[in-house]
Each structure stands twice: as structure tokens, then as C-alpha cells.
Design a protein that fits this description.
Blueprint lengths: L3 E7 L2 H15 L4 E7 L10 H6 L7 E2 L7 H19 L3 E5 L3 H12 L4 E4 L11 H12 L2 E4 L2 H9 L6 E3 L3 H16 L2 H5 L7 E4 L3 H4 L2 H14 L3 E4 L2 H10 L7 E4 L4 H9 L3 E4 L2 H10 L3 E3 L7 H5 L3 E3 L2
Parallel strand pairs: 1-2, 1-4, 2-3, 4-5, 5-6, 6-7, 8-9, 8-11, 9-10, 11-12, 12-13
Helix pairs in contact: 1-7, 3-4, 4-5, 7-12
């Protein structure tokens, strides 16, 4: 029997985590062969390579190394490169995750070649078109053939837009990843000992979105808020955030312990042992929800509305 060929598109931290859960299943499924295409959207070794190693994801067959500064240029380069791969490999379907430029580029390339598109994490909406991720997720949903929704709200969002065919309420693959990897993190991660911190004695924070980092006043306000807490804050520094701190000549206050980006197991350990979480990341706010850690999200809208409705998350308004 000829194997079904699946091409998986990844490019950012949350996608590596989600893809790991499915790749393990594909590896043991005799009728499916998977080819992984890494766009290079997150190119820092601590935000990419370490996830493949820790989560035992098969090494990408293709690494595109697309690192353009502007969204249009990045998406365009990815689109052309992915199209070339799809023409060569002739897969039976393509899988994309979430809402990154990599997601949109993969979905557009496959749909134009009449290759079925599977969108995992379909139907999410923040209804904030100023976020590039919102544009990506809306367009991806409208060219997808199978739409796997993590929540009932996501299904309802699609119905409002006239998308009913191929829609499935599947639950969240990120939850599967946390359940599987949290036990591993407890035995393998030594990050708390390395940083000399005790459980529930700190706030875990991540800051990376352009609207928070690329505007000096916004970044300055975040730094000031961190200072006013007077609590210990653990902040894995995103390359973009580090770059903008240097550009604006800004310095984090003494109560903020800035560390290099961490892998998934260390991240799980830091999140699960935090007293609170402060983030502008959609993935981290959702992980906080699954871990039942109170979360303050540095945004005024979120696509994960259930986390706010259930009272575990608050938005800046």
C-alpha cells in the first residue's frame, strides 16, 4: 500500500510544540509519511533547534531560512519556496498550525496547487485586524479543507463567516503536549536550581510582540510596570525585545532577572512553578490556562476568549 504523504509547515515555537504531538503519531503510523518544512521564521537556536531536540521531532527535510523584516516580504519568500517543495514532493495534504506568516504561506501555496489544507487551531478570532496574526488566521481558514477547532467558540466563529464544511471540534493539541511533557520537565529540567529560585516566589514574563517592543513608549511602560511590582520577575529575553532595548537605550529594573531564551521543558518548569504569568504571547497565555496559573496578558484583545471568561486571565484594557 502506498503511504499517504503529509507536508507539515512549522516556523515558530508554538508550532514546534504542537507538531511534536502529531509527529509522534505519524512516526508509528505505517500508512503515513511526514515531511517537515521549517521556514526559519524563528531562527534563534534557543527558540528553534532546542525544541526539535527536546521534543524528539524529526529533523526538518527542508529548512528555508526565511528571515525577512517585513511581513509581506517574509510571506512572499516563504510562499515561493513552499510552492517549489510541494511541486517536487506532490503530497496528499499539507498541515499548518496557528496563525504565523509560515501558516499563511503554506496554506496559500497548497490551495493554489489544489493540495488539501489541514488547519490545526482553526477558527480563533481576536477581532483585532491590527494584529498580523488575525489576518493570517482568517485567510488560512478560508482556504482550508479540514479545520480542526480547539474550542466551541472557534467553531461558532467559522459558522459566522459561512465556513461549515470540514469543520471539527477536536480540542487543543497544546493541552496534549503539556500533559505529555510536564512530567518529563519535572524530572529533566533543573532551571529553578540553576536560577536559584523557589517555586511560587516569582513572576514569569515574556514580551515579544511588535506592538509592545517596537514602540518606545509601550516598552518603557512595561519596564516601569515591572519595576513597580518589586517582585522577582524571570524574563527569557526574545531576540526582538533585546534588540529594541538596545535601540532605545532601555534597561530592565533590578527585580527583573533577564535570561536567555529557554527550551520547552525549562519553560514548562518555570511556568508551572510561577506565582503569576505576564505575557503578550498567545501560546503562553494558553499554557498558563492549562497549568492553572493566573495570567496578565499585555494586550487588549485575545483570540483565547475562554481563558478570560473562566477568570484565569486578565487583559490590559
Amino acid at each position: 500500500m502506498k503511504k499517504k504523504l503529509i507536508v507539515t509547515i512549522v516556523g515558530a515555537r508554538p508550532q514546534f510544540i504542537k507538531a511534536a504531538a502529531l509527529s509522534r503519531i505519524f512516526k508509528n503510523h505505517l500508512e503515513i509519511e511526514e515531511i517537515i518544512v521549517h521556514t526559519g521564521q524563528h531562527y534563534d537556536a534557543m527558540m528553534s533547534d532546542i525544541f526539535f531536540d527536546e521534543l524528539d521531532i524529526p529533523k526538518p527535510t527542508y529548512f528555508l531560512n526565511v528571515q525577512e523584516k517585513f511581513h509581506g516580504q517574509m510571506t512572499g519568500r516563504m510562499l515561493g519556496a513552499i510552492e517549489d517543495i510541494l511541486i517536487k514532493e506532490k503530497p496528499d495534504a499539507l498541515i499548518v498550525y496557528g496563525d504565523t506568516n509560515s501558516t499563511l504561506a503554506g496554506a496559500l501555496a497548497a490551495s493554489k496547487l489544489h493540495i488539501p489544507v489541514i488547519h490545526i487551531e482553526a477558527g480563533l478570532r481576536s477581532y483585532n485586524r491590527l494584529m498580523p496574526e488575525e489576518i493570517n488566521r482568517v485567510l488560512t481558514d478560508h482556504v482550508s479543507d479540514l479545520l480542526f477547532c480547539p474550542t466551541k467558540t472557534a467553531v461558532a466563529n467559522l459558522i459566522k463567516e459561512g465556513i461549515t464544511k470540514g469543520v471539527y471540534l477536536t480540542g487543543d493539541v497544546m493541552h496534549d503536549a503539556i500533559l505529555e511533557n510536564l512530567k518529563i520537565a519535572k524530572t529533566r529540567s533543573g532551571i529553578l536550581q540553576k536560577l536559584n529560585i523557589k517555586p511560587k516566589s516569582y513572576i514569569y514574563a515574556t514580551v515579544h510582540r511588535a506592538e509592545n517592543t517596537d514602540k518606545e513608549n509601550n516598552l518603557r511602560d512595561i519596564i516601569e510596570a515591572f519595576s513597580k511590582t518589586r517582585e522577582t520577575i524571570i524574563l527569557p529575553i526574545h531576540p526582538r525585545t533585546k534588540k529594541m532595548l538596545d535601540k532605545f537605550n532601555l534597561v530592565m529594573p533590578e527585580n527583573v532577572k533577564v535570561i536567555d531564551p529557554v527550551g520547552y521543558l525549562d519553560s514548562l518548569s518555570l511556568m508551572s512553578n510561577a506565582r503569576k504569568i505576564v505575557t503578550d504571547s498567545g501560546g503562553v497565555q494558553k499554557e498558563a490556562y492549562f497549568l492553572k496559573i493566573p495570567c496578565l496578558t499585555l494586550r487588549n484583545k485575545t483570540e483565547w476568549v475562554e481563558t478570560v471568561q473562566d477568570g484565569l486571565e486578565k487583559l490590559l484594557v
